Amino acid sequence: MRVTIRDVAQRAGVSVSTASRALSGARPVGTELTTRVTAAARALGYRQNRLASALRTQRTGTVGMVVPQISNPFFPALVEAIERSLSGSGRQLLLCDAQRDPAVEAVRLQALADRQVDGLIVAPVSAVASADALAAVAAEVPVVQVDRYVTDADLDWVGVDDAAGLRLIAGHLADVGARTVVLVSAGSESSTGRSRLAGFGPAAARHRLTTAEPLLGEYGIDWGVRAADLLRARGPLPDAIVGGNDEIALGVVRGLRAAGVRVPDDVLVTGFDDAGFAALADPALTTVRQPHALIADECVRLLDLARAGGEQAPRRIALAPTLVVRASTTRS
Amino acid sequence: MRVTIRDVAQRAGVSVSTASRALSGARPVGTELTTRVTAAARALGYRQNRLASALRTQRTGTVGMVVPQISNPFFPALVEAIERSLSGSGRQLLLCDAQRDPAVEAVRLQALADRQVDGLIVAPVSAVASADALAAVAAEVPVVQVDRYVTDADLDWVGVDDAAGLRLIAGHLADVGARTVVLVSAGSESSTGRSRLAGFGPAAARHRLTTAEPLLGEYGIDWGVRAADLLRARGPLPDAIVGGNDEIALGVVRGLRAAGVRVPDDVLVTGFDDAGFAALADPALTTVRQPHALIADECVRLLDLARAGGEQAPRRIALAPTLVVRASTTRS
DNA sequence: CCCGGCTGGGCAAACGTTTGCCGATCAGTA
DNA sequence: TACTGATCGGCAAACGTTTGCCCAGCCGGG
Q1: Where is the HTH lacI-type domain positioned along the sequence (chains A, B) (predicted)?
Q2: Model confidence over B86-121: pLDDT tens digits?
Q3: d(CA A232, nearest CA chain B) in Å
Q4: Co-location of A175 and A273 in the same domain
């Protein structure tokens, strides 16, 4: 049988309420009693039953998170950052995987809400198919979207400033002498695909880069490989290929290589996200690093704000990324 | 105010206990009442408060997991598998990151125990420094170790059969004509380092491979790079280099490349784990794939067993890996 | 007609906390 | 001395469930 606050109170010779107050500091308790209670607690090895506490206070000290797929290397980094950001205030992360399926995602969201999490951080699987479940759960508990967002829902969002990232890339490519660039990215099912596409044109124009028609598929290495072929079939290659994320970029590199095109000697390639393997790939990938820690902090801050402040206009926070130059755009 | 079982009972015109029994099926309830209760629950959109339920039943339907570092690409795959395995029985995973620090790990373990998780799945940070905290928490809740284990604690463990993995690698290397091999792995702080070292010699001998003195450092790409240099300094390279995990192997490839040694043309390299980037690397890495799903299922099974069966001798379950042959050992 | 057993509904007590309220004690002031 | 207010301990009621126990009703057997 675990030791309860009742045992502590008994050993300290005080009432349960006094013990509770002495331990939690909810109200001042005489110094002598306080020491007696804390001594008793230590002696007995008392540790609070968070469940009972949560039932009473309506606060679990737990934040739920749902990611589309944890094995997608972008998310572990984010999870880690959020876990760290939360642990600063003694909270825990309850993590779920949506298995890339909006139906699974809906179940997970409900399960987390049933567990009375204090807040929910969600990277929605789909910009449209995830909307209903997200809206439903947002009615019960503060929700912050991260990385991706659903359309038609007035929910907070925190992510990277895609336009800024593309400006960084365009600037860098211009610096190393590229004149013509083409974007290979994901289509508009995901919000990031949409905004990276939107940001590309202006960024290129700003640095006087000539662009060709973008190739839009899906985030994934396979699409990158295929896009490389399509690109070669289209005629002479551009000076640089801008990948919508690191996986696409890596696929492009692989596809070009298979055809005897060398990176970076014949064509430059850039990624987006700075997922773990971007540095490990060969050639190491020039990319744009998402500010994980900042994103995480911002998510947590918005959750706290939502709890404190009640209803407000949804906030959309786009944080500035940084450029990471590696071998894939460095001519030796 | 959320709708409680009380509201459901009221609307159905029955007592709270009947409502509870009708919904949970804990005891048979007349068919008419059952339908009335379920109809009321649906109409009101009732969803059980898991906290209250857990407080009463002493079962949270939540399993805690602590990993050394979620951004280490091996763990997301494991987390995903375990999450999936648990969701089959309607349970949730409460994930924590130990930030590679036994002290943080201890805090996380306690925090999970305080939240009354039904079980704990832990990949200990350190074979020795993690032992005390793990033993302490194991006194309160069933614990299963995964991947790594601590010495001097009688706790269940589930992981991969390192010896079998090395036999697969040795056999494959012998098949492709290698005669001399050397192991580059991690030292004995981690249990896997120890057992992979132990398995290497016999596996090589079985396939009549000549071995040289192993190089032992730590899991990580940097050590691989350094080891490649050490190896070259030592004299003529072996036919094949066996990495203790994929990161080391990739580091070795990089180190060799930098010195103008080609993989696989000049020397073969293998990894271990089949982390996500192993397939993405260039050359794609021949490696041994951990059976994530099996490991996950086994962890969950052991936890359930521990809850049901009470105290028993600790079980150590080593599951057979499979060989994945890729470019790093394929001479064209 | 009586009795025993079974079915199924409801009361109320838990689970381990927190907290509103009451009242006791004590110091300070008139 | 009496009164006021502040300080602080304790009682007991919550939080939302589940479940042990009791009891009513009913059926079948003797």
Answers
A1: 3-57
A2: 988 889 999 999 998 999 999 999 999 999 999 999
A3: 21
A4: yes
